[in-house]
Amino acid sequence: xRQEQNNIFAGIDWILxxxxxxxxxxxxxxxxxxxxxxxxxxLLSFSTKYGKQLIFISLTIPxxxxxxxxxxxxxxxxxxxLYIISLLSLVGLFLFGKTINGATSWYNFGVLxxxxxxxAKAFTALAVAKLLSDRQYNLKLVKNQIKAxxxxxxxxxxxxxxxDAGSALIYLSFxxxxxxxxxxxxxxxxxxxxxxLFILTIFFGxxxxxxxxxxxxxxxxxxxxxxxxxxxxxxxxxxxxxLYFVVxxxxxxxxxxxxxxxxxxxxxxxxxxLGLKVDNKNIGYNSYQSELTISSGGLSGKGxxxxxxxxxxxxxxxxxxxxxxxxxxxxxxxxxxxxxxLFMLMMFRVIYLSETHSNKFGRIYGYGLASILFFHVIVNIxxxxxxxxxxxxxxxxFSYGGSSLWGFTILxxxxxxxxxxxxxxx
Amino acid sequence: xxxxxxxxxxxxxxxFIFIGRLFQLQIIKxxxxxxxxxxxxxxxxxxxxxGYVYDRNGKLLVANQLSYDVMVQPNQxxxxxxxxxxxxxxxxxxxxxxxxxRAEKFASYLPSVFxxxxxxxxxxxxxxxMHKYTGFYIQKxxxxxxxxxxxxxxxxxxxxxxxxxxxxxxxxxxGELEGKEGVxxxxxxxxxxxxxxxxxxRNRFNKVTGSYKDGVSDIPPENGKDxxxxxxxxxxxxxxxxxxxxxxxxxxxEPSTGxxxxxxxxxxxDPNMLVGRKRSKNSIILMDPKNPEKPTYDRSLLAAYPPGxxxxxxxxxxxLQENVISEQTSFRCYGGYRxxxxxxxxxxxHCDIYDKPIKLKTAIARSCNxxxxxxxxxxxxxxxxPSEGLDxxxxxxxxxxxxxxxGYDLPAGQKGLIPNGKYYDDRYRYTWNASTNIxxxxxxxxxxxxxxxxxxxxxxxxNRGYFYTPHIVKxxxxxxxxxxNYTIRKQTTIxxxxxxxxxxxxxxxxxxxxxxxxxVKGIEICGKTGTAENSIKIVxxxxxxxxxxxxxxxxxxxxxxxxxxxxxxxxGGYGSTIAAPITSLLLEKYINGSISKANKYxxxxxxxxxxxxxxxxxxxxxxxxASGTK
Lengths: 426, 630
What we know:
The complex is a heterodimer.
Chain A: H1 14-35, H2 49-69, H3 72-96, E1 98-100, E2 103-109, E3 112-114, H4 116-133, H5 142-160, H6 165-169, H7 174-180, H8 186-204, H9 206-261, H10 264-273, H11 285-295, H12 308-311, H13 323-356, H14 360-384, H15 402-420
Helix pairs in contact in A: 1-2, 1-13, 2-15, 3-4, 3-5, 4-5, 4-14, 4-15, 7-14, 8-9, 11-13, 13-14, 14-15
Chain B: H1 5-32, E1 41-46, E2 53-54, E3 60-72, H2 82-89, H3 93-106, E4 112-115, H4 120-129, E5 136-145, H5 152-155, E6 158-160, H6 163-168, E7 177-179, H7 182-186, H8 188-192, E8 196-202, E9 208-211, E10 227-229, H9 233-242, E11 248-254, E12 259-266, H10 279-286, H11 299-302, H12 310-321, E13 330-332, E14 336-338, E15 346-348, E16 357-359, H13 360-366, H14 369-381, H15 386-398, H16 421-428, H17 451-462, E17 466-467, E18 473-476, E19 479-480, H18 484-487, E20 490-491, H19 499-511, E21 526-532, E22 537-539, E23 542-544, E24 549-556, E25 563-569, H20 579-592, H21 600-608, H22 612-618
Parallel strand pairs in B: 2-10
Antiparallel strand pairs in B: 1-8, 2-3, 3-4, 3-5, 6-7, 8-9, 10-18, 11-12, 11-25, 13-16, 14-15, 17-20, 18-19, 21-24, 22-23, 24-25
Helix pairs in contact in B: 9-20, 12-14, 13-19, 15-16
């Protein structure tokens, strides 16, 4: 039983740190390209976006040191408190928050704005890890499942009220964590089935979907009956009936949700994405410009600071949510796929390390980290390359913004801290 | 199976999908990505000067002048003081809205013309105020100027490129001008030159922030090429004057080169009418399909009619070549030619030589119908069946460029018609012979030719057996054209020696025959007059036969000919009354340079002669009822 060393860097996984540094550094270069104007270059200044971001990046150094300074036990012990603080900070928004672009997501401190939802992810992950790592906790029990759902649901709900549906969506990633810890996959499968039915119904129209699915299910049932004979039918008739009902319900429900619950801008985004509407000027402008910008990069890109579409500021929010389009234009296929590979490597590394943890808390937290990263990357890059509808979430470590950068830094380095101590006795 | 597998798997899957998508966007689509056509690059055009056009003697026919259009790009327009703007442009609010909507309908992200061709004084005033109206700007354009008000049919005109073309073709943008007819259209690519392009970097507020990549892709403008036509503008103007009050066409060709000296259609118009602001008003008048004068219809190229008597020379040449007649062969004429036993199967003849042997020379000079009917019959019957006979006849004729597009360098034309065996086989189901289509012998029947084809045919006779395809452009930027189509002589199927008797006979026409009243002292004119029976028209439900068209082909001098021409006058009656004097005046003018005193009366006569009364008669319903076959 060795004693923990005083050196805070001992046992740190330098691979993750290395990937982190590359992502943050490369991200800054792209923010620089996207927000640079023709005037003088003014690093470390609050007057330019890239200057601000550089300040944010330098502030991560003390932040990382503080995170690494705490004993890993601290995070486990204080997980609930941190979680509650972050919930309170989300609630506090409704009293003191500042409304930007219709969403009350910010605390305003002069030049600096803080977005608590970016930090809440890390603390929710801690809370989930704490709950699930309890020795008496058994995820097979529905009661326990509900507990876990509530922990995840609360911050997501508060964020939805801001409203910031994009950030709330990220909380779905905790399903992976729960699944790793024993939650049946059926929930995810059910979710995926409903979402695909939803999209297909919008695309093809309710009546067509209804008929084709009816035929499809009937064919499958007919096949099963043929294979299993009467016996199959006797034992399963209610399941078959239920299947028909569920499908009918989802399809009919889609029409209702789509037309009555969705807002017009949601519908527009969906329709542009599915190609039901062509609009390169208004609603579809972002996606159209962003795809065009990426395409223009070609294999090796136009070179750093040479992206003319980026220079012309044609892609809205290019330094934040659409930063990946700058990568595509200036660094081409090579650059942009490298970024994707870097993210993959980081996630693989996190999962790999998590699996080596002997203690459950670290493993679950690691899973939370990987899943959150995964969701962010899917939603953000999927949107930028035109595969998913427009949902505003930042690209981890890349996008402009202090809260996002610090939120992910905290998320990552708590894991690095936990990981560094995995070999020590608790 | 470890539970971590799912996340590993999904991450890998999504990674592949994303990289695949990037591959599709950047590698597959990226190939087709055109860096110059994105919103970040603004293209500014630098318009070159359109090429000038000169006549064969270097006289300027087409020059340029400046004009200013107000352009609009609707998606950039900001709210503006419409009242003031309308006052500046001298339009009312309603007009403003109509024009703006039209521009939006075309494409809100492309510039289009808002107001065409400003007056110069308005332009100066407007230019200072223009900066106030975002989205509007003034575009300088080059429009045409015609110092000599003639040859509109040859020169053609330029007009706004049609919107479809402007969207598809990179060379044009909405509002730009392109050649629409005549030389302007035919030589559009040369005359236009190449637009200069300047690429500028701009941001999403459309503000230009500098030149794009330091101008590496910029293209400097290249001026249009100048054309020197084969046209003799003095002769053209003179011919147009002579055709005043008449309808028809004149084509004159230099036989030794195929260069078109004169290409007249009458009535014509002043080319300046289709320039500037009055253009659209004028074009409606000129192109009105109900206008019987059809000033934009080029009769010299498009009027396909039976050639009449000049075609007899063709049959004579074929007869000689096929060896079915010789110079000494004679036929008798009995006031006409009977081609069948029934009473009406008789073709009248006006040669006035009753029951005496007529030889070739006389037959041509006196235009004997019987002689050529006999010759035609022999030609057709020489072969095993009439179909083969007619095919060989057809082969000879088409070698003169008749019956098909000649291949000259103007964008209008008619094939005409020279029937072959199959034509009648299909029509009469194989039960026909030479008598069925005997009118081909005298150029009536099914045969159709245009004036330019006849002029070319005459040039081939003048050359004794060959011709150069007629053409209108002599030099491009001082370089003589080298298109083999115009520089290689085309041989006809008739041997050289057979032309001598025919030319002698044509000479006789102007010495003693129908053209004798139009002789010119010192010039040996060879020619042939003719009438094209005006086919029966139906006007207001009543069949009428109008006055015949008169036709004349001629060349001069007899030896070493300098000019060959065809004159066609609608409803001109016998060729000798109008077409012959016009021909002789043109020949005299071209060869001697001026009209001698002795012939001034002829000139005056022709300049004042007007057929307007005859033409006027045709518009209201004519009481004359068709007199059947003639």
